Amino acid sequence: MKFKLLIVYIVGLCTSAQAQVQHAFNVKVNAPSATIEPTMWGVFFEDINLGADGGIYAELVKNRSFEFYKPMMGWTVRQKHFTEGAVLVTNRKAENTANPRYIQVTVNNAAKGDLGLVNEGFRGMGIKKDLRYDFSVMYHLPQSGIQLHVELVDSLGNILGGTSVTPAPTGEGWQKAVASFTANATVLKATMRIWFEGNGIIDMDMISLFPADTWKNRPGGMRADMVQMLADMKPGFIRFPGGCIVEGFDLSTRYQWKKTIGPIEERQLIINRWNAEFAHRPTPDYFQTFGLGFFEYFQLAEDIGAAPLPILNCGMACQFNSAEVVPLKEIDPYVQDALDLIEFANGDTSSTWGSVRAYMGHPASFNLTMMGVGNENWGPQYLERLKVFTAAIKAKYPKIKIVNSSGTDPDGERFDLLNTELRSMHADIIDEHYYRKPEWFFANARRYDNYPRNSSKIFGGEYAAQSDHTVSVNNKNCWLTALSEAAFMTGLERNADVVSMASYAPLFAHVDGWQWTPDLIWVNNLQSYGTPDYYVQKLYALNKGTNAVPLTMNDEVVAGQDSLYATAAIDATTHELIVKLVNASDKLQSNTLMLEGVKKLAATAKLTVLQSDDLFSVNTFETPTKVAPQEREMVVKGKQIIVSTAPYSFTVLRVKIL
């Protein structure tokens, strides 16, 4: 309760003596002040918190190609009678640098149950009753004589479904065996067993298991419920692949997009930089298989109607870690990667990289219009590398807009240097990040009111209110954090002529495998739910409009007076007025919207309200919609609309203009 009162004091929430429950807002419906870009509200994806492997990428087998630094991590060998060397890890680096390791299994007159392998999955395997599961394995077998028995089991050893595979001899090469079966029960944390029967020696690699219900039912695809959470937001863009993933701990672990395309078995796994980033949340089994690679990212953006925004390494590793940089005289390959990516996304099928895209199944362009150079990089060393990238990209692709880093913080010497220099360079878009406590978000609702109107645009690329402090394991996605973000976002929309894009970060977190909190969407092996912050982002994205219009109280924008925050927009395509109201006080407040420039309104309006009396309320797997939007209709009479806003609420009003 003391903390609650402190927050109330800091952000200026109303006290009983000061409460003003009646307010009059002037809304100039016929005076659009800024165009709201289609990209205004988007999503930021990074492979953190088991976001890709173990998350949105639906592969259930961990370390399927034995390329982790401990080759058998995730696997256990089962033997009824121990035989030395029954399972060996073999390295063929000279002939396959992308995927050198495989296992060799020697089977000596074995019956089912004598010799086997168990894979634990990513914190277990989420299995659904009556769903088909597709097993596959790359193998080399000189002669017949071995049968594989594949089965899923729960923690008690109950078999949940399985199949048998009899591999055919392969000669000198490798082949792929596939089989499918249906599960007979739903289990949150199952494991997979492979029993060997017969005689012979078999080499195995890329041992895989996928559920059939992937997004759009694509074999080897993405987890449908997680993608649906994104599609439901109708984001204007998706930024990928991060984030600090782009930089790497050092340049050897940076993200290299060319290694993430092509056949899955030829994509080169690397350690995930979040593997050992935080001593308080070690994740030694966190790697990037790149089953979710740049082709899949572009495809995902297309699927959910979002503009793709790839971010590329600028020749600098994470400055908080190694701070390694590539010398300027050696920067050309990094720049060429950027130019080649544009060709991969947009080039015709006769071009080098456009033909690769077409070979992968997408001859049409992905319509890339923007890309980022560097992530949270700063200092003179960033600026000098950025200038090289900018010159090369603009020379060949002048219409591509470049997203430029302003560092890690929204103020301070680093920010001031970059903000000044980037504007002098006439940068297209400047990426600002803000991980701050809720009071910062309330206090900064007017941050962009005095930014220059005809200069570089702003991308609020990463933001999230921290209920405790940045990098704290105690951060919660509570209603207070979401409410403060809703208040801050009124200022982003009001200044849509300055701010062209914004996205919360990070996006996903696995409840058993996270490194960072807070996060927008939480998942386990079977379920996903949106936080209160998710519903704020979703309401803004679904109620975006096409043009901001002035909304004032006593001739001032509404940004904290009596703990109210407000913005208004029109949607020229649907002929609607959209008003967003945040009541950050503990009082019910009545707000009269006096509309100018309107002849007639529809008889009813739609109200969507996100509210909780408890600022520290959170959603959970048990109560996933504890804080979730509620919709209702209200009667409209004349050109004045009275909207009552509940304590601690975010309200969206939509009304048709006739």
From TrEMBL:
Domain Alpha-L-arabinofuranosidase C-terminal: 461-649
Chemical reaction(s) catalysed: Hydrolysis of terminal non-reducing alpha-L-arabinofuranoside residues in alpha-L-arabinosides
InterPro entries: Alpha-L-AF_C (IPR010720), ASD1_cat (IPR055235), GH (IPR017853), Glyco_hydro_b (IPR013780), Glycosyl_Hydrolase_51 (IPR051563)
Pfam families: Alpha-L-AF_C, ASD1_dom
Highest taxon of the lineage: Bacteria
Any single GO BP term: L-arabinose metabolic process
Keyword terms of this UniProt record: Glycoprotein, Hydrolase, Signal
UniProt family annotation: Belongs to the glycosyl hydrolase 51 family.
Identification of the protein by name: non-reducing end alpha-L-arabinofuranosidase
